[in-house]
User: Fold this.
Amino acid sequence: MCLLALCAAALSPLLSCQHARGGAIGSRKLVILGIDGLDPDLLTKFMAEGKMPNFARLATQGSFRRLTTSIPPQSPVAWSNLITGMNAGGHGIFDFIHRDPKTFQLYFSTSRVEGPKHSFHLGSWVIPLGSGTAEQLRHGKAFWEILDEQSVPNYVYRIPANFPPIAAKGKTLSGMGTPDLRGTYGTFTFYTDDPTAAVGAVEGGEVVQIDVKNNRVATNLIGPDNVFRKNSPPSTEPFTVDVDPLEPVARIGVQDQQFVLKEGEWSGWVSVEFQLMPVFGNLIGNVKGICRFYLKQTHPRFQLYVSPINIDPENPALPISTPSSYSRALAKQIGEFHTQGIAEDTKALTDGVLDDKEYLEQARTVLAEHRRAFDAEFPKFHQGLFFFYFSSLDLNAHMMWRLTDPQSPTYDAELAAQYGTALEGFYEQIDQVLGEVMPKVDDNTTLVVLSDHGFAPYRHSFNLNTWLLNNGYIARKEGASGDASEPFADVDWSRTRAYGLGLNGLYLNVRGREREGIVEPGAQADALLREIRQKLLEVRDPKDGSQVITRIDLASEAYQGPYARTGPDALVGYNRGYRAGWKTILGAFPAEVLEDNTNAWSGDHCIDFTKVPGVLLSNRKIEAQAPALTDIAPTILSEFGIAKTKDMMGQSVFQPR
Ligand SMILES: [Zn+2]
Assistant:
């Protein structure tokens, strides 16, 4: 801290400051803990309660600020702001979900995975020519690309919006945005002989009806679509379960592996190879995955959960690390681990396939894996940048908020008594990680702990498309039922002026951009947007008069850069307690404009960005009074004496201003 005083007193330029803090740039070290969703209010509360002593020490001895998040405050957008130093106008990521304005096909915003483009047919087989590809859709240079160019060693663990990982000299592992082996963000399978179970696809998985015959279940694991078969049906691999006729225990056999599970027990990672095409006794096009089994119940009903099949880090079917051998090396050191971008199986909880206890066990396994990786990698760090990402505070705040919030429509006092402190337990674990880092921080090391956004309750849904319909901005075809499965299937585009898509996106139906656009770009579009903005800001919750939407940013004002006009035309900022409804996000029209959110997913941050700032802590004095995510890339570069690029919007948070 004495060095801080030296810098501040001298008001010296950055370079001399660096010298003052000990030696040449080559020996400088920067450690960044990127904690998704770490909320400043919760942090302040837990520090005051003595539950996060290491954070409290860092905040007292160094600095603690709120960090301005992205517009909108969604993780892929926020981390892209951090990675590039630009906002969405520069990196082109506006939401989890984007749309093709010509076809209205929806896609995940950060990457595209495609099968081979050409193929020929042979009987029922389809022979692909060339291999499939995975493409990253984020634009702009990542801070570690610039560090690579300047030969600053760096390590980047699971930063979101980096799948497939861009070419890098250092070790990187992809995180949020990495699909499971089926190409989805995570599809579990639930096997049951309950005749009343709703069989088929549910939101985050698939329910499969099985028979227990002579105490045996013979069924299939469901793998990636088999592009070698006509119409690409999903590939399958058989497995068996022998259920003990009396005891709550079963033996599972998958390929050449056998293991026994008791009721309520999870397996470790199980490898499975999907054989896509047999040729002359050899297998080509086969892919490997890993999954975990959870024996939920044996009697009277059989219930078995199988996790989404993750890309196997030892034999990755798609690129997930740099160098490509790194995921294998890490698995060799710490054991197999989740590679799927969002590893916590939140959908299994919302679908009722796992209960709170079971979900929390799974979520704790994810954090345990991250901590094993941290414990393996941090001791190897001696130079340059070490960036490490933790997902737990975000996903578990999404799921567990309702048990800390008596105003939540899904608050349950009994569950709250059991699991109401679960979220706090994850915060305490992150504090323990910080406790491991702090003793290793020397005078040459800058330590930064930050989050991409904070958190808010999500009690009520606002169905933007229903509101637009009721207010005459959307017209539907005659006789539309409202329950179409395709996004916007019933919309009469020739009479529609605006639509909502994604968690915060409001789009106009612009002539020349949308397939059947009718709004003239320019003055007409501007006037329409301002009219809708005015009306949306006036919406009140009839229950208590609360303002539902507190802020709407126009893309023309919020974004700079080459992609500024390729996303939504305006970003809807909800008040705390509100969020876009589950169905409106995907272009559907629930009957009511406002509804209670009865989903277990009960905390959120995809709202007015001023209401969910992230955090920024450092062992050094943060000079910026209102630092923003876009300041982080320039901060990282300046720590190593590298000038920021001309596209970067911010400046080092340590720079006196
Ligand atoms: Zn989140």
Notes: Residues 1-23 have pLDDT under 50 and may be disordered. The radius of gyration is 25 Å. Residues 273 and 288 are 4 Å apart (CA to CA).
